[in-house]
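Extended Data, panel c. Modelled sequence:
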Amino acid sequence: MRRILAFAGGSLALILGLAWLLTRLWPSPLAQQAIWFSALIALGIQIIGFLFVRVLLSAHVMAGWGAGMLLRFLTLVLYALIGIRLLGFPPAPALLSLAAFFFVSTLIEPVFLKP
């Protein structure tokens, strides 16, 4: 449980920092709203993906990582096809920020998976 909370905290810090930087890149209010919404989605999905890896760590670590990556990919696709249209967000800041949040928080996963 400690590693999950540590990963969640680390991901939160990375995602918040990157979201702040991205809001400087896209200063329009709607783009900033899309970035912060993408940050919330990314944090939730990253924690769920990390749980997949933790549950399958002893038996099939690659299956856990694969399931987590599939979850992230499907989230990005559904957000692109459905979420952006329903919410009226500009596509570039919404999708690029979500992909960036997934990328940076996935980079720290191995640190929290060490036995």
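Residues 29-56 form the longest helix (28 residues). This feature is highlighted in the accompanying rendering.
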